[in-house]
Fold these 2 entries.
Entry 1:
Amino acid sequence: MLLETARLRLDSLRGEDAQALFAYRADPSVSRYQGWRPTSPDETVRFIEREQAVAFDTPDSWFQFALRLRDSGELVGDLGLHFVNADTVEFGVTLSPAQQGRGLAAEAVRAVLALVFDSLKRHRVYASVDPRNLACVKLLERLGMRKEAHFRESWREGDIWVDDVIYAMLAGEWSARM
Ligand SMILES: CC(C)(COP(=O)(O)OP(=O)(O)OC[C@H]1O[C@@H](n2cnc3c(N)ncnc32)[C@H](O)[C@@H]1OP(=O)(O)O)[C@@H](O)C(=O)NCCC(=O)NCCS
């Protein structure tokens, strides 16, 4: 699967991405609110190998887009799509710290929302976020997603319980924005 935006190319993760992926995914500022935090480059290699084994749009599985600058090909982030079922998709997006604050995440997510609603004809897209993750909350609100649930202490993070907030968009809301 390949998507292009003004500044980005979205395609599959490759073996040679492991070092760059590890460098930003293991950064504490990036992994703070993430479920997956690689502890070694080898773990990142295995993550990419697992991703490569799963075809795009396989029910009940994740597909991880690589976000690359169109100009240089540099890996600047990734965007995971969870094909929950035939109607619903979840996503999560990550940028390397050096590439944040440029609008790249919003650009990538808009391209993926267009794919999911216009081409794949899904009914609902959602993202799950720790409400302390203000950069992500801002991103989801900037994209026009609607806050529809706040689950109190629904995840255990080590010794503490943390909240989970759900932002969603329906196909009708996506088309009404056009
Ligand atoms: C969540 C995350 C991807 C958001 O990244 P981000 O850089 O804030 O989002 P964008 O790329 O859309 O950039 C938006 C910012 O760039 C600014 N910007 C600069 N140039 C811009 C341009 N040309 N177009 C749009 N926005 C631009 C915007 O004003 C905005 O800044 P602000 O937040 O200070 O108002 C990032 O914080 C991240 O990777 N966090 C760690 C991983 C994580 O927790 N992910 C969430 C899992 S769901």
Note: The chain has one domain: 3-176.
Entry 2:
Amino acid sequence: MMKPKVAFFGMTSCKGCYFQFLLLGEMLTNVFRSVEISHFWMLKEQNRDEKYDIAFMDGAVSSKSNIEKVKRIRKNSRYLIAFGTCACLGGIPAIRNSRRGYHEMVYGRPVKHPSLDEVTPVDRHVKVDYRMEGCPINEQEALRVIRDLLIGKRPREPDYPVCVECKKAETRCLFKDGVPCMGPVTNGGCGAPCPASRTACDGCRGPLPDANWGSEADLLSEHGISREEIKSMFSKYNTSKTSGRASK
Ligand code: SF4
Ligand code: SF4
């Protein structure tokens, strides 16, 4: 029997999501036995461009060649997974959408750069079958999505905030200890590892559709966060003008 073909691609990102995925180690080896890895430049020397059953796309779209790539891979794939916050929302590479003079900041002088004026998420260009936010992704979620697709089940994107996962894990709310947190307005699915280690959620899975932003802003301001800082916290991972899940 032919094994399903799975492929992994990258665009503009730090590649941290793939490193996180590889942390699955032995569990990944078990999954990889059931599939054929057609393309994974981090693991394989020989990569084939062909039709795929499942394609993972990491990174934001920041150049014309990225647009061509994402369209080609969509055309060749049965399921396309936006892998990580850069792919789902623009993420960190999209911070430059709202800044000027970043080339000078990075290179110390004006430079001609081939990138597009606006960095965009994958779903701005093609249809996406599953958005796996996270900076980086949660490797257990990646495993679940692969397993679901292999048994013909359509994976469901989590539709609750990070706070729900704190409650499930019986993690004491950081606000109770005076620590401002983005959990109430952030997409869940990560298992809330940051609050569990007493670090505030900084919203890396992007904004929850229909989040109560006014109430979160009031809470943050009661905890001494300035208006300017609140604005920056709200836009850190979502500067691409579309909110992945809200844009469906
Ligand atoms: S710690 Fe943050 S994510 Fe957890 S319940 Fe409190 S506000 Fe929500
Ligand atoms: S708790 Fe927040 S910052 Fe931490 S992984 Fe989850 S969404 Fe990201």
Note: The mean pLDDT is 91.
